[in-house]
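batch_manifest entry 22 of 60
target: Polyketide cyclase
source organism: Tessaracoccus lapidicaptus
requested by: lab member K.T.
priority: normal
notes from requester: please return tokens only, no post-processing; we will run our own comparison against the previous entry in this batch. if the run fails, retry once and flag.
--- input ---
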Amino acid sequence: MPVIDVQKDLDNRRLVMTAQFAAPVERLWQLYADPRQLERVWGPPTHPATFVDHDLRPGGRMHYYMTGPDGERYYGFWAVTEVDEPHRFAFDDGFADENFAADPALPVGRNVYTFASHDGGTRAVFESEYPTVEALQQVLDMGVIEGATAAINQIDAALAEG
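--- output ---
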């Protein structure tokens, strides 16, 4: 299992997940840079993702939806704020309606994904910060830890397949 640590810090409104992959940093970067590869791992296995827009550069946006087992769709977006290829990117991740407009009833998380060489592979740190304790608690109650862990744990297979 790639996920090796999960830290939730309600006081600072942060969730930090750490994972270890048996692939170089550049290969992990390719997974996020290619929407077809990213679709294989963004979202848990029961809710695969489809990216309809993918622009991994500062100011870029990504629009996606996850499809549930009964065909229901859950829409989301990334607003990319920073890119340091292949080591780091930052983005705001939010829930959206079917037109990819932000859903004001659900929180937006500020995310920083960092990739570094470690023990012959890559150590990835996935950090999310929310505007309030209540916002973090809301996504925790929605199962973000379980969903993100299931999604991240798919990455090794995707990296091996190329």
